[in-house]
Amino acid sequence: xxPLLSITDLRVGFGRNPEANEVVRGVGFDLAEGExxxxxxxxGSGKSVTALSINRxxxxxxxxxxxxxxxxxxxxxxVFDLLTATEPQLTKIRGxxxxxxxxxxxxxxxxxxxxxxxxxxxFRLHRGLTGRQATAAAKDALDRxxxxxxxxxxxxxxxxxxxxxxxxxMIAMALACNPRLLIADEPTxxxxxxxxxxxxxxxxxxxxxxxxxxxxxTHDIGLVAGIxxxxxxxxxxxxxxxxxxxxxxxxPQHPYTQHLLHAVPHFASGRAxxxxxxxxxxxxxxxxxxxxxxxxxxxxKSGFFGRASGAVHAVDGVDFDLMPGExxxxxxxxGSGKSxxxxxxxxxxxxxxGTFSAGARKAAAEQSALPVQMVFQNPYASLNPRLSIxxxxxxxxxxxxxxxxxxxxxxxAALLKRVGLPExxxxxxxxxxxxxxxxxxxxxxxxxxxxxVVVLDExxxxxxxxxxxxxxxxxxxxxxxxxLAYLFISHDMAVVERIAHRIxxxxxxxxxxxxxATSVLSEPKHxxxxxxxxxxxxxxxxxxxxxxxxxxxxxxxxPLGFEPEPARWDEFGPDHRARVEA
Amino acid sequence: MRILRAIFAHTSGRIGGAIVALYLLLAILGMLxxxxxxxxxxxxxxxxxAPDSAYxxxxxxxxxxxxxxxxxxxxxxxxxxxxxxxxxxLAGTVLGLAAAWFGRRWDGLLMxxxxxxxxxxxxLLALLIVxxxxxxxxxxxVAIAIVYTPIFTRVxxxxxxxxxxxxxxxxxxxxxxxxxxxxxxxxLLNLVAPLTVQVTLALAWALLTExxxxxxxxxxxPPAASLGLMLSDSRNLMETAPWLMIxxxxxxxxxxxxxxxxxxxxxxxxxxxxxxxxx
Lengths: 582, 279
Fold this sequence. Notes:
Chain B: It is found in: Cell membrane. By secondary structure, chain A is of the alpha/beta class. In chain A, about 30% of the residues lie in helices and about 25% in strands.
């Protein structure tokens, strides 16, 4: 019998001359009923285009299928050719036979309609249900994706739900008509690790319940280990390797697969931490940065006269110190206050309370006017598109009252060379550089003022894995060369393990555990740290089942005058302590 | 020089640039008095003469040469349009940047004032100002400038607010850039594209508003010529002497087309992302 889906020699092109601009070149695979295929590759590898070709959504993105065949076996065993299908036929197939979920749950839902209306829509279209029947079906769909209190949530609009909840709603909609194939295009990339673990667990459970097939697209080869049966690795529009899960992960044949498996930072529970530049136990050296009792609150105004009725406790009493040449990683989920901490140190948000001092490291003559510099997350937004690289690099110098002279130019050229870009880049503009190169430019700009501390706010999160690995390498080299102290803010435990000497885990605006990277990762003490570490996907944890956990981060809005209890700490070794839990 | 060359390399820039250049030439010739006939001279024998080799675009009810009047009229209309748009752009940019930069109370106050101005139809507001100040070239310029300032304020404020929140502005703050540096380098420079497009559109509207004011007798005063005035004079003779309407009408239409094409080209050229593909 024919498999559920059979694709042979698929070719997809874009633009006026699709034959010449092919982004998918001869991809083929079979997918049996109940099987899960993971398509893995970096951005631009053609993995999403391949998936979008299956339900022909690629036509709407300006793509054209130039060759090959896509055949779907329908429920009545008739074979359906998706390439020659007409648009009305495709509309019937989409949703009913092939469901799809996308990367960004926040933008995939209409913000002005209630989620109930939006789920009912797919029941109305494909099953002709109306009125009460549709509402009942929508409630069942939400129950199925384990959304608590489903009947009431139907009345919510998307802005009232968190990212993880919205992705569940998207899954509920995709599964509304029991499709036999679900295409998931990076469904967890925009979500926090613990939420990602919940969604993965949900997908695995639903797959078991319904027996549907799944195509799972991701850039994170570690993530698919728990869910996929087969893996297809794509590079430059071609499937370079495909096979059974274990075979690919344990015995990769193609050099690119090997490279991917190597480049992806595998989380090793503290076994892969850095061995250089460990913190000395003597107290002689002055810290490069000392933060003491940092508090950042944003007033919440309500009522007609806008009187303050409470405050968002974004950062609630954070203290740490950072030695020269040391990396302190601040990890936590979105909304935990890790970025606010960084922004307060840089003076981008006003701190309510607390002190920080950046100590002297260099001789007075060399001492920088601004010892703390920052590299931002999004390399596409942190460079002014209208300025040449020369003007961008000169800005810190001009800003601190310097002049652009021969010396400055020599320095710009030297720093560019140091971060691995040609000197000719000076005359060019940001859009001519890739994401990784832009992040190198941002690093060069941050180093223009000889800082002693560099704050890296999710600085490698937006980059592809192999680019990410090289930027991390560069950061480590620069740290050794210039004796820089890094404050590395990240949600990615595997990356943190590679670069951090010390780790501070932040939850709801407070540090819950801080200490030496190896001990925090190998022997987490606080329950939140444990949960965070348990959620990290790795290829070692193949077929491990995640517990479904629907706990939400507590609200950080507190009444006026609320003060948190002073922290009590348990010590676990010379440099490892965790907050005592209530 | 580089921009001129880039305009020439751009297809719609070439067409738009040629049209605008032609109008400028006609306007200058008109202002220097280098017209085929005296625009004010009334050739009584040749009243309502159809276009021929002597009168290229015919003559009007008083026997004045339409081609000559058109040339001086273009000069008059363009002067009003250029100056009023220049003032509106300057005022709108300053106000819009101020609203976005200072935010809160200033933003609220400025934008409410702009809302009040915007609530009036453009021509009505211009009429009001001209009626109070008395008709004339300079009052037309000031009136049209006031009418279009709120539009520029809005066009600048919106993107400026979003640019202000961009990471490169945060980055500039972390190394201590001054407000004036951030305002000019990071905000204004990124506003060049929307402003250019708005300027070319506003030039077209200003031409129309000037024509409207003159049509109602409050702009350019007879016997001087402007495109709007000529159009207004032609309306009773539409059937007997259609050339009186066709030529000023065409002149307005083609000039607006020219400005829009040039605006599109400038927007592309001033964007560094497009520079590669053009050069």
